[in-house]
Design brief:
single chain; mainly beta; 5 helices; globular; Porin
């Protein structure tokens, strides 16, 4: 029995790598699409829920820690346990996240988790909202019809189970699922949808390594705004994090939108095909340059630096965000994100600023409490 352990652990690592390869193969074989903006509805489902992830430029994180803000977007972290067999999430936790967006809109998340006194695996419950603000309504004759509001609301329930036990060396393989009913009301128009997130996470606590593959926003609208069904923002993604044993930092790498290869679109400010005004020569973008640009649009990277045991500094970068918001002046701060975190025995506080575009960058605030 002693000799079977290493083989079983190596087989598990190979199995997880095969899963990542299959995701990447699906991503390469998916037919391309030209313009992806505006293809989906209920984009509340496509927004991250915590300041820690936002500071690293990610929508969700995979890491071998019991953090309720990560568990909402990555439910595979819910049933992590320590060497003593206790759930690392532990007891009860609550968190509150608030984000001031653009033009008076705001987003918030209230989350709570419990392990039911250790009787079952922890579950997570959350309420999310995206308030788009107040608008002035007018009819076809430009007569005011009064003001109205627009908002999305979501209630989430998350659960996780271990897929494999007894792997040794702090290894775990977990499957997590989050169910999210979503309700939207824009003036007198209403819509309702049901969405599921499925995540398979592998964690190696001793080596500081964690990885996950996720299928997010699987579902459909059950009632629509005007009788026309729209797609939810479905996404396949893979993420990993790694921390050297004695290094004061952790690295994060993500591959997003794996269900779609072509994330580019023709930008009139930066066309891929140009014509020399004097010679009439047509210049087209090289195949290698186009492929590299498209590949990098799927990549996110971040680093978290811990200063002592209580203070954390986070920095992230999204090439896609930077490329889409480049403008005439070339590269800019779009796509960059940064944040700070403070960790205590009972409280965690995180702040992040994520540069979505040139004019404004939303601020994220998250406060968590362990009972």
């Amino acid at each position: 029995m002693r000799n079977s352990g290493p083989r079983r652990k190596n087989g598990l690592a190979r199995w997880f790598c095969v899963s990542l390869i299959l995701h990447f193969s699906l991503f390469l074989s998916t037919p391309s699409h030209a313009q992806i903006a505006g293809m989906n509805t209920l984009t509340l489902l496509d927004l991250g829920s915590g300041a820690r992830a936002a500071g690293l430029g990610f929508d969700y994180l995979v890491i071998a820690e019991g953090d309720i803000t990560m568990a909402l977007d990555n439910p595979s972290t819910l049933c992590l346990w320590d060497d003593g067999g206790n759930h690392r999430l532990g007891g009860q936790q609550a968190s509150l996240t608030y984000t001031s967006l653009f033009a008076g809109s705001a987003m918030g998340t209230l989350a709570y988790s419990t392990d039911f006194s250790g009787r079952i695996s922890p579950m997570l419950f959350a309420f999310r909202f995206n308030n788009y603000g107040s608008f002035e309504g007018y009819d076809e004759e430009e007569i005011s019809t009064g003001s109205f509001h627009a908002a999305d609301y979501a209630v989430s329930v998350g659960y996780s189970i271990p897929v494999a036990r007894g792997l040794g060396d702090g290894q775990q393989l977990n499957f997590g699922v989050t169910m999210t009913p979503v309700f939207s009301q824009y003036e007198r128009y209403r819509a309702f949808a049901l969405s599921f997130d499925l995540v398979l996470g592998y964690f190696h606590a001793e080596r500081g390594f964690a990885a996950a593959v996720a299928a997010r926003n699987i579902g459909a609208q059950l009632s629509t705004f005007d009788g026309t069904g729209e797609n939810l923002p479905f996404e396949l993604s893979a993420e990993m994090s790694y921390k050297l044993a004695k290094a004061p930092f952790r690295l994060f790498l993500g591959l997003n939108e794996l269900q779609r290869w072509d994330l580019r679109y023709e930008d009139p400010l930066s066309p891929t095909t140009t014509v020399d005004p004097f010679t009439g020569e047509v210049k087209e973008e090289g195949w290698i340059a186009g492929m590299a640009d498209n590949l990098m649009r799927h990549v996110q990277a971040g680093v978290e630096l811990n200063i002592g045991k209580a203070l954390f500094v986070r920095l992230g970068y999204s090439y896609r965000q930077s490329a889409e918001m480049r403008g005439l002046e070339g590269l800019n701060a779009s796509g960059l994100s940064f944040g700070l975190g403070i960790h205590t025995k009972r409280f965690d506080f995180a702040y992040a600023r994520r540069n979505y575009h040139l004019s404004q960058a939303p601020d994220f605030f998250t406060l968590s409490y362990r009972f």
